[in-house]
Design brief:
The complex is a heterodimer of chains A (162) and B (671). Chain A has 3 helices and 7 strands, in the order H-E-H-E-E-E-E-E-E-H. Chain A is of the alpha+beta class. A 5-stranded mixed β-barrel of chain A has the order 2-4-5-7-6. Chain A is elongated. Chain B is of the alpha+beta class. Chain B contains 21 helices and 11 strands. In chain B, the strands form 2 sheets. In chain B, strands 3, 4, 5, 6, 7 and 8 form a 6-stranded antiparallel beta sheet that branches. In chain B, strands 2-11-10-9 form a 4-stranded antiparallel beta sheet. In chain B, helix 9 runs antiparallel to helix 20. The radius of gyration of chain B is 27 Å and the shape is globular. Chain B starts with a helix and ends in a 10-residue tail after the last helix. Classes of the chains: A alpha+beta (162), B alpha+beta (671). At the A-B interface, helix 1, strand 1 and helix 3 of A face helix 4, helix 8, helix 9, helix 10 and helix 14 of B. Strand 1 of chain A pairs antiparallel with strand 1 of chain B.
């Protein structure tokens, strides 16, 4: 082979590798996008049945119940217009409180109960998860003023991780 | 008074930075020695003023000056003194000031350790760094003044976020920022070379130690952050592909690619335009990372709306730096003779292997960028909120890195310019014959054989074996007699490379073992009860209260036993901070060479008469190897920076023509 042909073969091989990598990336990407939905959208059956999604809103005050095994909890997530019952087995994060914002990730069962495999409330005390704030906004009950409870901007606090 | 002094010092630093950005640059263009000569003094003056301003901020925190907004919202009289110091970089404003301190510190370092460089080069490099500094000083002064007053003064501060009250806060942010900002030096060298029109192997040799130093700090910074998340958040994970983590990982990937491509540029005088581009990308990603984390874009793009001035400034600055440097690149690169006929090398030459390494790293980088930024774009376009789960990153990253790890064993062995297949096969035969059977057999001994565990172990053993054989071969070929003499005969950067690669191998073992054999369990436990996890029995002994300086803790006592004998006592805590009322989980971890035992407290179970708690129990085999591997990589970086080669006088170095021809005394063997 002439050097020019050789180079051509190498470039082709390189392109093939990059092409395969791109395909791999995009396939993994599309199957791992987790959409966000509000309780109202759940009530209107606009959410996927067999795919995990995130649900955000406030934890309804007084809705948190624990079973006797101590690790399975149930509560409802509301956007002030609609509520969705949620069950979760495991240890809740430190900042999970009734009346506060929370985001749960999981699937909705045929019984209409949201089975969460993850509860995200890993934020600052005064901080409302953006998804939760969004849910309240969409349902027409936005939190007044900033997304922070009565505080001056605390944007300064790192959100998810130190 | 102190805050005002700090504020004025920042304004003066801005004046100096502006002068630094203009005068030496003009001087270098006109060949005016007096003007270029000002660069060092200006850089050093700028550092003094910024350091003074930073000192003022720390003093305000130490003195509990709650008339300063920043102090009032991030500190508290009950906060221990060392956390009050760290609180000075716990806020957005403070962290940007820390960033500036690091930037001026690196600028200062360049002004000190550049005696061997031509004045014009130093002037241009320092001027570019001066402009970056101008951008950040303006950002600080116009939108996020750390010294802004609070009238009337608060009586008590809001306290530092309890998550940040941790020794990790002392080391992690400064290290990470050292790394982020360190890439500004490589960036400045690249831009200066484009402006100056001289882009050769000497340029690569000057950039190398700075790039390696920055990469080393970034590695340590990420490692500390990962370890911190592991023990503090109580989730027991070491990497979550969280956007905040990705923000630091993206410049790391670019920096790793840059280090390798710089090596080729220095030794062989090729890949020049690619190297320059990578230097720009690495620093741009550092900027992007800083802003992603610090501007609040990640928590919500709408955080821009809370302070539009900040968001607009950030975007403008990013656009200027990235767009400006790319424009300069597009304009100057073709005129610099970058596209000269490439030096010939064969597919099995070290150049080819490093090229593939770069391609793999950059593709992985693009994948991480996609997963991190896509949700932000979708949100910004108002197309809904989405997130990209960790499985995406896992399924993309591991397949891309596995071939890179295989090549990592071959690259250091292959010669520059080319190697014949039989030669290479002979060198690789023994490492392969040793690593493969061991990797296949080991998982059986560990109790569970899966292809992934087998692959992970093989990759690690492969790197170990190839490195060991390469060093042994090098020693045999060294003329010196005696071990010490043989060791001393090779350059530190040779060992540095192998240590960093072995660090990767150690890291891979940690990841493989944790992924393959970890066990996690959430259980309900009452004092006196115990639970078995693998070979260990965890017994919940008691629970009691413990006072802290600014919190009250509930402390549990767990005994871990193996085969009936107690091997560890663990005391996880649940802390309640007075000022914020926030609760924090402090996991208890018994670390060991072969793994960690990890217990963290959930919540007391309501209505349980036996005082039961929800308890999380983890067994994490070899998890500490992950961080040990990172530290080894950083150690390799340190050793490489210490190589005397980089400190040789310019006149003593081999003639530039020799280096650019890349022949190292041997005529190029073209094919």
């Amino acid at each position: 082979m002439k050097p020019r042909h050789k180079r051509f073969v190498w470039i082709l091989a390189g392109l093939a590798v990059v092409g395969v990598a791109t395909g791999l990336v995009l396939r993994a990407f599309s199957s791992n996008i987790v959409a966000f939905h509000t309780p109202t959208e759940v009530a209107e059956h606009k959410t996927p049945q067999d795919r995990a999604f995130r649900l955000g809103g406030l934890v309804t005050a007084g809705s948190l119940k624990r079973t006797t095994d101590g690790l399975t909890v149930s509560f409802t997530v509301t956007d002030m217009a609609q509520s969705v019952p949620v069950v979760f087995t495991g240890i809740l994060p430190d900042l999970f409180r009734e009346g506060k914002g929370a985001v749960v990730q999981g699937k909705i069962g045929p019984d209409g109960i949201f089975h969460a495999n993850e509860v995200l409330a890993k934020h600052d005390e005064n901080y409302m998860p953006p998804e939760a704030a969004e849910a309240l906004k969409r349902s027409g009950h936005p939190i007044q003023g900033e997304i922070f409870a009565g505080q001056k901007p605390v944007t300064t606090q790192p959100a998810a991780k130190p | 008074m102190i805050p005002e002094l700090g504020h004025f010092a920042l304004i003066l630093a801005l004046c100096l930075a502006l002068t630094l950005g203009i005068v030496p640059m003009v001087g270098a263009a006109r060949g005016n020695a007096r003007m270029t000569g000002t660069a060092r003094a200006l850089a050093q003056g700028q550092f003094l003023f910024i350091a003074f301003a930073f000192g003022c901020l720390v003093a305000s925190f130490l003195g509990n000056d709650f008339s300063v907004m920043n102090v009032a919202s991030n500190s508290n009289t009950k906060l221990p003194a060392y956390y009050r110091v760290t609180a000075s970089w716990g806020s957005h404003e403070g962290s940007i000031l820390l960033w500036l301190l690091m930037l001026s510190g690196w600028t200062f370092a360049v002004s000190i350790f550049s005696r061997n460089l031509p004045d014009a080069v130093v002037a241009r490099v320092l001027a570019v760094m001066g402009w970056i500094s101008v951008g950040f000083l303006l950002f600080l002064l116009l939108t996020s003044n750390p010294f802004a007053r609070l009238v009337p003064a608060a009586l008590e501060g809001r306290d530092l976020n309890p998550l940040l009250q941790d020794p990790g806060m002392i080391y992690h942010p400064p290290m990470l920022y050292m790394g982020y900002v360190g890439f500004s030096v490589a960036f400045a060298f690249a831009v200066a070379a484009l402006i100056g029109g001289k882009l050769d192997a000497t340029w690569a040799r000057w950039s190398r130690p700075w790039t390696t130093a920055a990469w080393m700090f970034l590695t340590v910074g990420i490692c500390l952050g990962s370890a911190w998340a592991y023990y503090t958040l109580g989730w027991g994970g070491w990497w979550f592909w969280d956007p905040v983590e990705n923000a630091s990982f993206m410049p790391w990937l670019a920096g790793t690619a840059l280090i390798h491509s710089l090596a080729v540029t220095e030794k062989r005088g090729i890949f020049k335009s690619w190297t320059v581009l990578l230097a720009m990308v690495a620093f741009s990603l550092s900027l992007l990372g800083t802003f992603l984390v610090r501007s609040g874009v990640l928590t919500s793009v709408h955080a821009f709306a809370t302070d539009p001035k900040r968001g607009v400034f950030i975007l403008t600055f990013l656009a200027l730096v990235i767009g400006g440097s790319l424009l300069l690149y597009a304009w100057r690169a073709p005129t610099l003779g970058l596209a000269r006929a490439p030096r010939a090398f064969t597919p099995m030459a070290r150049e080819s292997l490093l090229l593939i390494n770069n391609v793999l790293l950059v593709v992985a980088l693009l994948a991480v960028i996609l997963g991190t930024l896509y949700p932000l774009f979708v949100d910004a376009l108002g197309a809904g909120k989405i997130s990209v789960g960790p499985p995406y990153f896992d399924s993309v990253f591991y397949p891309l890195m596995a071939p890179a790890l295989v090549l990592m064993g071959i690259g250091p062995i292959a010669r520059w310019r080319g190697e014949t297949w039989p030669e290479l096969a002979a060198k690789l035969m023994w490492p392969l014959l040793i690593s493969l059977p061991v990797a296949v057999a080991l998982p059986f001994l560990l109790g569970r054989w899966t292809p992934l565990v087998c692959l992970g172990l093989w990759l690690a053993l492969w790197i170990f074996a190839t490195s060991a054989f390469a060093v042994a071969r090098r020693f045999r070929a060294t003329a010196a007699t005696g071990w010490m003499a043989k060791i001393a005969a090779n350059s530190p950067s040779y060992y540095a490379m192998h240590i960093a690669h072995i660090g990767i191998a150690v890291f891979v073992i940690g990841v493989t073992m944790v992924k393959g054999f970890e066990s996690e369990r959430d259980v309900r436990l009452a004092p006196g009860e115990s639970v078995n996890e693998g070979a260990y029995a965890f017994r919940f002994v008691s629970i009691g209260e413990r006072p802290g300086p600014n919190y009250k803790a509930v402390q549990g006592r767990f005994e871990v036993s193996r085969n009936g004998t107690v091997i560890e006592t663990l005391t996880p805590e649940k802390r309640n901070y007075f000022a914020s009322g926030q609760t924090m989980t402090n996991a208890a971890i018994a670390s060991g060479l072969t793994g960690d035992l990890y217990v963290s407290l959930g919540e007391p179970i309501e209505g349980a008469t036996d005082g039961a708690w929800g308890v999380r129990i983890y067994v994490k085999p070899f998890v500490d190897w992950i961080w040990a591997g990172c530290l080894l990589m950083a150690l390799g970086g340190l050793l490489a920076v210490c190589d005397r080669r980089y400190r040789l006088k310019t006149e003593r170095k081999p003639k530039a023509a020799d280096i650019t021809s890349g022949a190292q005394g041997v005529p190029a063997a073209g094919d």
